[in-house]
Amino acid sequence: MSDRRGLGGSSIATTATSFLPAKKKDPSKDRVKTQDKGKPSSPRQRGSASPSPGPGFAAFTKHTTGFGQKMLEKMGWTAGKGLGAGGEGMVNPVETKQRPKGMGMGFRGFQERTEQTKLEAMETSEEEEEEEEQDEIAAPRQAWKRKDKIPQEQTIPSVKSRKAKKVTYQTANDILADVQQSMQQQPQKVIDMTGPSIREISISDIRRTDSPTLMETTTRLPELRHNLRLIVDLSRGDLENLSREKQNTAFRLKAMEEELDVIQQRHKVDEERLDKIQQVKAIGLQLQQISRDALANGMYESANMTTLFGEPFEQLKTKYMDQVVHMRLDAMVVAVWAPIMKYRCVHWNVLENPLLGLDDIKRWRPLLLCNDDMEKKKSSRRRHTKQNDISLEATPFETMMNTIWLNKVRSAINNSWQVREPDAVIQLLEAWQPVLPRFIFENIIYQLVLPKLTRAVADWDPRNDEQLVHTWIHPWLPVLQAWRLADICTTIRHKLSVILRQWHPSDESALEVVGRWNDVWTRQQMDHFLQKNVLPKLIQVLRREFVVNPRDQQLEPLAWCLAWNGILSDQVFGELLDNEIFPQWLRVLYKWLTMDPNHVNYDEIKEWYMWWKQVFTSLGIADHPVLLKWTRRALEMMNAASSGESIEAP
């Protein structure tokens, strides 16, 4: 018969009834608990789960000096005990486990943890389960107490009151935002050394949440967790690819829009160019019709180019100059110009009217393209790149001037022009030089003018020719420049040197002839010529014919020599005065002052000195430094003589 008791029976009081769900117990864990019941536990001992040392403990010291073990033994440590003052620390050293060669992390379920790590994790989980069971048992027992009377410090924490780690989850929008932000930022390089070779991966491939989730800490349902992780990784990869594709599509769309704008602008430019081409075509037809009408009416003979084609030429010059340059429309202009020029050159007298047709070419020169104009525009680029055009093709204008205009000019210079009448050809070259192509201008100079001048100078006879050579050579200097006339000047100097061999300074014609070349020849050429041909003659005259005589002074030899002042260089002229004139003049003064004092008349000496100063002033050397030096010495000598002092001989 069963013992039935009421509400106040002792069975209820003695039995602790728990309404928590039952837990499945592990016999191995219970066995470990039973073995550890009688052992004292402390927080430090709970944290240490190292087993007793194995038989091979510290066997590696035989390969070393054992310095570390000796230091520990000196500080009180004994083999087989834990570290620390009470021996509650680690007993065994940290174990390591070698991964097979070439195997990556987690390959085919390879366990990275060692036995020591597994044992410590098991002990830690058992302690946590014991604490949870104690909390679960203690909570119902104290449930009858009033919570407001229980001090806050003595409340027993429950399972719900334990603050669990917060798990964060990311939505698809969060992942897309992170991917876009990571793409905008500078990518970071991560070195993966887990495989057989080193490789670089992106930071997004290894990104995880800050706190581990329950799936990452638990060991249950590995297949499901693995599949879920694969699904998450695949979804993340798909989202990243879609985001990257979206961004690339946006970039391509922007590039295509920019390209569309460029194409539209180009299309607009092409339409404008096409319109201008149609207008230029109409102008070309107009030029053709005007040319035909002028040929039929005979207007070629009287009308000029501006009268015939002024209106269409003006339109091309003001509105369509770019088309003229790029489409080479100068051929169209030359096509109507060449027949008129050819007709007029037949009856053209070059020497009588050298400016025929020049005004028309000057006015419409921009329409007549020339390689010289293009060279000026490309000169700076060639200076930087150091490249020259291999070959140049003659423009229509250059061809017209070379075949029509130059032939007429060549015929006139070779057959009609007299060298000693240079004005007509000089006027022709000076007027046409700005508009002529450079090669045509150089052709006229080197092939026509200079050869004829050279032959004329070679035939020139300075003795018998009444016309001085400079009268028909010097007018060419502005056009030809002195460097082009260098060979001709050399021939002239040679001929003058031959004439001056028998020259006497009393003949002033040499001074006139040589003086004309003072600004043409270089200073070095002139000095060399004078020192070789003129200076010896002057020295000879001063030494033989010039005598300082107070009674009967002859000044003609002195005047002949001093007339070369300004042609001789300052240094050469100063040496001539210093060596040939004033020493003789001062010696005469010294003799006069050193005579018997009874016969010396200082008033006559003073008058003689003042007379010579007037002579030097009239000859143009009053302010010459050499003259001032010698007159100062003369005054010193006269002062010394008047004072009765001795005079030093010069």
Summarize the structure.
The chain is mainly α and about 650 residues long.
Give a description of the structure:
It contains 26 helices and 2 strands. It has 650 residues and is mainly alpha-helical. Among the domains are: 47 residues, no CATH class; 112 residues. A two-stranded antiparallel sheet has the order 1-2. Strand 1 and strand 2 form a beta hairpin. The longest helix has 76 residues.
Notable characteristics:
650 residues; mainly alpha; two-stranded antiparallel ribbon; 2 strands; 1% strand; disordered N terminus
Strand order of the largest sheet: 1-2
Class from secondary-structure proportions: mainly alpha
Biggest beta sheet summary: 2 strands, antiparallel
Low-confidence runs? 1-49, 147-161
Overall average residue pLDDT = 80
* Strand proportion: under 5%
Seen as an oligomer or otherwise, the chain set is single chain
| DSSP strand tally | 2
Tally of alpha and pi helices: 26
Report Rg.
61 Å
User: SSE order, as H and E?
Assistant: HHHHHHEEHHHHHHHHHHHHHHHHHHHH
Approximate helicity band = 55-70%
- How far from one another are the termini? 178 Å
Ordered list of secondary-structure elements with their pairings:
Blueprint: H1 10-14, H2 27-35, H3 43-47, H4 67-74, H5 115-141, H6 172-184, E1 190-192, E2 199-201, H7 214-217, H8 222-297, H9 305-319, H10 321-326, H11 330-346, H12 358-363, H13 371-385, H14 396-415, H15 423-432, H16 438-458, H17 470-473, H18 477-484, H19 486-500, H20 509-515, H21 523-533, H22 535-544, H23 556-562, H24 570-593, H25 602-618, H26 625-642
Antiparallel strand pairs: 1-2
